[in-house]
Amino acid sequence: MLDLNKIGEINLPALDPHDALPGSHALLYTDWTVTEPQFDPEQLCARETVFTIGNGYLGTRGSFEEGFPQALPTTLIHGVYDDVPVIYTELANCPDWLSLMISVNGERFRLDRGEILHYERQLDLRHGLLSRSVRWRSPTGKTLDLEFQRFASLDDQHVLGLRCQITPIDCSGTLAEPFPWKIEVQSSLNGYPDTQGFDHWEQIDRGQIEQGTGQGVWLQVRTRSSHIELSMAVKLAVMGADASFQVTNAHGYSTLMSAFSAIAGQTISIEKVVTVFTSQDVEMPVQAAQDKLANLPAYGVLLDAHRQAWDAVWQHSDIEIEGDRTAQLVVRYNLFQLLISGSSHDVRVSIPAKTLSGLGYRGHIFWDTEIFILPFFTLTQPAIARSLLTYRYHTLEGARRKATHSGYQGAMFSWESAATGDEVTPRSSMPTDPYAEAVRIWCRDREIHLSADIAYAVWHYWQATGDDHWLRDYGAEIILDTAMFWMSRLEWHAQQERYELCGVIGADEYHEQVNNNAFTNRMVQWHLETAVAVYEWLQHAFPYQATALAKQLQLTAEHRLLWQTMIAKLYIPHDAKTGLIEQFEGFFQLQDIDLSKYEPRDRSMQAVLGIDETNQRQVLKQPDVLMLLYLMRDTQALPAHDNVLQKNWDYYAPRTDSTYGSSLTPAIHASLAANLGDAADAYKQFMQAALTDLKDNRGNTRDGIHGASAGGVWQAVVFGFGGIQLKDSAPIATPHLPPSWTRLKFKLNWRGTWHSFDLVPSPAQKPFSACRSSCN
């Protein structure tokens, strides 16, 4: 295995697959596995995030079955939101299905007791399996080998599996009591999960499952405000020993207890299978959970089906990299985190910024999904992409309510969205210092580019899939009603004879109230151009639906003519002579900054300078103009000038706080740098993005996976290093492989046809050979 802390910036050391630093707590890896070789309590919560498993319906953090002080055991289910003071709503931490307490002769197994003689935890990305191996000596000298395994079935989203194999070890000379030892196991469904200090669940009922073989219990709970009912059912089986069973149903806890005797070298297997349903899935979750459990095959059969489902997914979504094992692993890790977060089954949910791996941002939905995450699904798992975009359709009413409340027409998508699409961005931060003032969060009011971002995602989904019926039934309404919002939001300035957008926040959130942000204005202009094209297409292809939708939205011919005028006269600050785009009106008059003078540092420039001072400097949280050029790479972004990307890259990249500003930055910089031919910087930025969570390089992995960064990693590989351009007939590659990469392979689905890319450099490294693309 290789050590993630041994990574060079460009040329990686040729390490033996079993190398590891003595005593190191770093993660080790192979092409498909991530391994924690030793337990470090200080990294407990970050590693819980790293070892998250899921299946697109739910995600479960890598907490220990037996528990540990300060742990954050969390299971999140898409769409299970509940009200919470100040924050409006959040994903509710669901009952803990992992709980498995093991005692030997009355001594409870826990890693904060006794002595850890061996420890290893491993995530198998190929098959979505989390395993842990522990040799533990109790305070009185009893030694056990324990092997844990868990999975969230990709074959059946309502099924979870957990197995623990226990083997007593004869350690002569210790204080241990003579064999046989009495081992007790308690397996619970914990109905009192903590959600950052808040209990979202009312206890409704619990009970025992009567069935011919095995033992089972069930639990029924309901969220306090949203009244979403949830039920879990569990059965326990013990193999390798004669076991007795007992059921207890303390309030909020459904528990199965089993006891048996074991001698040295005897291995006993405990298999725990759980089913889970909510009232968002079925009318009667309790009955559904019990019926599902009663008809499930054996644990091994469930595991095989789960493995086969993962094999099928990787057939289309995998990326193969030769010559760079580190890159191979980190890319697959980020893709795994995306795949366990996206649902094709429920069109009323989307992927939160922290996926389903943590409570950061309360499970709210941002532009992260449409701009950073969605392209991966659009081009490798289009059914999931369609589902994610349909969520935005189902939240249009919330977007319309926000527009009306703000005094505008049409639909204005919320910066942070949850179940209904209404704005759930907190108005102010919650300071931990009792003497600090609350900081106003202006994104909810001013960061309005999201509506154009969603339209951008809708258009590109349609371009990639040719899904005319979805655009007719869902996508067109999204694009047109948000265009109605822009029509009412744009301001006409007669003196300059132009339309403007004033008082906004662009993608760069270090500048909070600016006029004519280039990113926002150009995206709005593009949006209106697209709205005109979509309506014309709808009139031609589906005239009845065009008429009906125009009537529904009160969209008139005069409105569409006004859109054309706005497109022509919307101001975008730029210098036609130099090709330099001004981030917003007046940006070039701000005080310049040399970020190198603030090194070394371990925090953002906003934290260094303060909010007010940062507002007055030419320092960026994330690439605003560069992000615009990236998104508009297949069309014309202003200005029409030679080397426009290079000129703006040279100006803005040195002023971007890419290390500590936003996790959204490095992957986009990597893609742009690759296309500009800067292999060294491209690879450095790529690895920074790809290791965001595996190395916890921002110090906040405990809050959950950085989903946008994970999506950006895929884009950096495909659009950056692969040089993919999406043409009408088929995707075309002009690769820019890093020096260490000898081969890059991936598949893209373009309008129903799979295209396989097998990219290799020429023997001389320059130029790269043309891609070989074949359709399957």
From TrEMBL:
PANTHER family to which the protein is assigned, alphabetical: GLYCOSYL HYDROLASE-RELATED, PROTEIN-GLUCOSYLGALACTOSYLHYDROXYLYSINE GLUCOSIDASE
GO biological process: carbohydrate metabolic process
Protein keywords: Glycosyltransferase, Hydrolase, Transferase
Residues of the Glycoside hydrolase family 65 central catalytic domain: 332-715
Name of the protein: Family 65 glycosyl hydrolase
Protein family: Belongs to the glycosyl hydrolase 65 family.
UniProt signal peptide: none
Active site residues according to the UniProt entry: 509 (proton donor)
Gene Ontology molecular functions: carbohydrate binding; glycosyltransferase activity; hydrolase activity, hydrolyzing O-glycosyl compounds
Domain Glycoside hydrolase family 65 C-terminal: 735-754
